[in-house]
User: Which sequence fits this backbone?
């Protein structure tokens, strides 16, 4: 078995054994075929790469990191050594890979775990036809909407939770299909896709990108991903100021649980965007105000609510067809080390609504200790 996995991953079997011994490849518990995952990236193999061992071995490569442009020009010209680029919307939800394993559909999250909630949704949203015809392809996309336990967002006019495809990859190699081929499949199997703004000559792309990002920002949407139509060159991402500030608002509510680099990079992005967009004093002042409010207001909110004796946390919710899914999802969050309290399910149309309070213990305790007069 080791030999077969090593061959599929294109690494020596001695190295594979070593990765298992060092705990970089970990076994995953849950209601799915026997599964191992890469807990870190390793050479060419992405973090989150999943290895299913059932009557055969199925490898679903991890979704690669997308590097960020801090300025559009000259970064796009420098990065894309191809005649044109595609500009797509970057949607704000969570990354999902949907694959068929032994004839059943599973939804994987970024780290290579099968998420029971995502799996239920994926089976609902993606019919059987696609995987019957293409068992060796993986649908990569964003799960978006308010009934989203990881990244709840109400900005897309989606009633519950929906899947938007942005990539189709080959299982074991992780190679992406060219964009035109992906769009043909999307059409043929009636799968929703992220919005495609168009194909632009590389020299004209940064001007187009700037206008697109400004418009997306006005709608509080996240930003764009710029791609090589042939998918040979890795894509790059770029986000709106509104989304950077939105992240800061989310982060500072739980200021002691988020890593400091999370805050730092988002503030630096604002600096480069302000300069590249050549802003007037007036516009710069507006940006400063937005940035400052995004940092301070959520903290004030958190400190006040802790002062009132409330637990610091975030209310999220899921809508499931089967109660079993909610139970499995609770176990899944537990395994991920996420601290969450599940309320009793409420019967709603088509299933159950389960409200979940995700606790941020570190921010909770730190805030209390400061309020009690302890030193930082
Ligand atoms: P990364 O490790 O890729 O930098 P991250 O967790 O920091 O990920 P983001 O800053 O949100 O995430 O940017 C990358 C993610 O954007 C992808 O993993 C994917 O889930 C999401 N995404 C949304 N829309 C698209 C799109 N059109 N094309 C590619 N990725 C998209
Ligand atoms: Mg994201």
Assistant:
């Amino acid at each position: 078995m080791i030999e077969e996995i090593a061959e599929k991953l294109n690494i020596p079997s001695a190295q594979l054994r070593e990765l298992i011994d060092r705990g970089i490849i970990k076994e995953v518990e849950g209601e799915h075929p026997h599964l191992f995952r890469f807990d870190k990236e390793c050479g060419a193999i992405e973090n989150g790469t999943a290895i299913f061992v059932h009557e055969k071995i199925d490898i679903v490569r991890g979704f690669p990191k997308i590097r960020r442009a801090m300025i559009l020009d000259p970064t796009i010209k420098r990065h894309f050594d191809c005649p044109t680029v595609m500009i797509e919307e970057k949607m704000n939800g969570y990354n999902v890979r949907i694959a068929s394993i032994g004839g059943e559909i599973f939804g994987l999250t970024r780290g290579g775990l099968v998420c029971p909630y995502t799996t239920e949704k994926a089976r609902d949203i993606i019919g059987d036809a696609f995987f019957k015809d293409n068992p060796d392809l993986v649908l990569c996309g964003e799960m978006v909407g308010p009934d989203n336990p990881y990244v709840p967002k109400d900005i897309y006019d989606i009633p519950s939770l929906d899947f938007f495809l942005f990539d189709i990859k080959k299982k074991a190699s992780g190679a992406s299909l060219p964009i035109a081929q992906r769009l043909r499949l999307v059409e043929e199997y009636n799968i929703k896709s992220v919005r495609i703004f168009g194909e632009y000559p590389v020299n004209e792309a940064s001007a187009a990108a700037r206008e697109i990002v400004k418009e997306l920002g006005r709608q509080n949407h996240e930003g764009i991903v710029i791609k090589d139509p042939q998918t040979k060159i890795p894509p790059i991402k770029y986000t709106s100021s509104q989304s950077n500030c939105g992240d800061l608002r989310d982060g500072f509510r739980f200021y002691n649980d988020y890593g400091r680099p999370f805050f730092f990079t988002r503030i630096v992005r604002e600096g480069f965007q302000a300069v590249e967009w050549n802003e007037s004093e007036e516009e710069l002042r507006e940006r400063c105000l937005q940035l400052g409010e995004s940092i301070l207001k959520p903290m004030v909110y958190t400190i006040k609510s802790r002062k009132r004796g409330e637990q610091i946390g975030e209310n999220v919710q899921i809508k499931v067809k089967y109660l079993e899914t909610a139970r499995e999802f609770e176990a899944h969050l537990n395994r991920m080390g996420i601290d969450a309290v599940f309320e009793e399910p409420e019967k709603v149309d088509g299933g159950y609504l389960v409200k979940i309070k995700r606790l941020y213990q570190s921010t909770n305790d730190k805030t209390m200790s400061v309020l009690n007069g302890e030193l930082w």
